[in-house]
Amino acid sequence: MERTEWLQQMREKAEMLYDHFAPLYWVAWGMGESETYREFLQKFLGRMALHSSLLSAGCGAGRWDGVLLEAGHTIVGIDQSEGMLARAKEHFPEVQYRKMGLQEMDFHEAFDGIICVDALEHVFPEEWPGILQGFWQALKPGGVLYFTVDLAEGEDVPGAYEWAKAMGLPVVFGEVVDRADEAYAQMVTLKAGMVPDSDIADASVYHYHPSLEQVRAWLEQTRLALEEEGAGNGYEHFLVRKEQRP
Q: Whose CB among 105, 162, 186, 222 lies 3.0–4.6 Å from 134's, allowing a Cys bridge?
């Protein structure tokens, strides 16, 4: 199978699963608290002027949009899952939500700040530079981006890579799909309203774990200046600011 076709299948499966299980998000899975997320969100908000315009990219069901609204800002939320957006709209009708993948962003200096939390692990390596460029383009001069990178704690990334290569899949190192087919099959057999095991749900969708060195190199190429970085809750958290091109 060609890599382009395989990646498209991964995207379609992920979108279907997020659409299908979106109604459970605020009921069975709740919102969960995370000290590190809260810490970095407050650092991000501390860099925003009053009544800023913010983009919640890969917003899902709006997990953090309430925090942004409570701080007094105007929010636009984008996600590729219509089902997750519907859940977000139920809770935050004042937010403008749009069905849009991170790869499809077409904003131009529209936002003072952007957050992209727990979403980039589902992005293919070929798309990372373009998405970071999209963030740069969407930010106003001096705007700030807060995003997270999955550290793959507890996952055997080299083992998953060797398994996938042995199966003839067109993977690159860092992609984890060794349990995806089996977990996906279990997920689609669940009846409406049934709560899937969180580990199975996570394994059923594509993940890519770039090295932090690679992420920093992409940031430098995009002229997103790193201001602060830290680990917590299984993720690396980045605060970066838009630099002006010479």
A: 105
